[in-house]
Design brief:
single chain, about 180 residues, alpha/beta, Rossmann fold, 2 domains, six-stranded parallel beta sheet, 6 strands, about 15% strand, globular
C-alpha cells in the first residue's frame, strides 16, 4: 500500500518566515509591525506607504533564512506524521534568487527532506497529492484534494471547515485522516 502524501507548506507552517521578514523591515523602516497586525495576504497594505511593494525585496535576500526559526511543534509534528505512515513533501514558492535555500534550511533544522521530498512550485493547487497543509487560503481552496488551512492572522477571517490552529491539532487531524485512508 502506498503511503498517503501531504503537500506541506514551509513558510509560516514550518518556518517562522514572517517573523524574520518583519524584523528586518521594522529595523530598516523604523516600524513595529507584527504578524498579528497582518489580516490579509496583501502585506504591502500594512507597511509604511513609502515602503509599499519594496517589502517583497526582502524575500530576495538569500540570508533571510539564516534568521528564520521553526514554529514550535513543527519538527515534532512532521516526525509524528511520518511515524503514522505519511510521506511529507515540502512544497514552497520562492524567488529564483533564493531557490534551494529553504531546502537547506529544512535540512539544517532537522526536517530531513530528500530532494524527492521537496518541490518549489508556484501552482500548489495543481499538485496531485491527497492532502495539503498550507497557511494561504487560496492554495487550500483551489486544491483538488483535501486542503487543510493552518490558521494565521492573515487567513483567520476566511471560513474553512478543514482548519487547524497549531501543530497538535494538525497531528490530530491527520491521525483521524489516516484511519479513513
Amino acid at each position: 500500500m502506498l503511503e498517503p502524501e501531504i503537500a506541506m507548506d514551509v513558510d509560516d507552517v514550518c518556518a517562522k518566515l514572517q517573523e524574520a521578514w518583519l524584523a528586518q523591515y521594522n529595523k530598516d523602516w523604523d516600524d513595529d509591525l507584527k504578524s498579528e497586525d497582518i489580516r490579509t495576504w496583501e502585506i504591502e497594505k500594512y507597511v509604511k506607504p513609502q515602503c509599499n511593494y519594496q517589502i517583497f525585496h526582502y524575500l530576495d535576500d538569500p540570508h533571510l533564512y539564516d534568521k528564520v526559526q521553526p514554529y514550535p511543534g513543527a519538527l515534532d509534528g512532521v516526525r509524528k506524521l511520518r511515524k503514522m505512515g505519511y510521506k511529507v513533501v515540502f512544497v514552497t514558492s520562492c524567488p529564483i534568487v533564493t531557490s534551494g535555500r529553504k531546502f537547506f534550511w529544512l535540512k539544517e533544522q532537522g526536517f530531513a527532506p530528500t530532494e524527492k521530498d521537496y518541490d518549489e512550485n508556484r501552482k500548489k493547487s495543481r499538485l496531485n497529492l491527497p492532502y495539503m497543509l498550507d497557511d494561504r487560503y487560496e492554495n487550500v481552496k483551489d486544491f483538488k484534494q483535501k486542503g487543510i488551512l493552518f490558521t494565521r492572522p492573515w487567513n483567520a477571517d476566511y471560513s474553512w471547515a478543514n482548519r487547524v490552529n497549531n501543530w497538535d491539532e494538525a497531528v490530530e487531524k491527520f491521525r483521524e485522516e489516516i484511519n479513513l485512508w
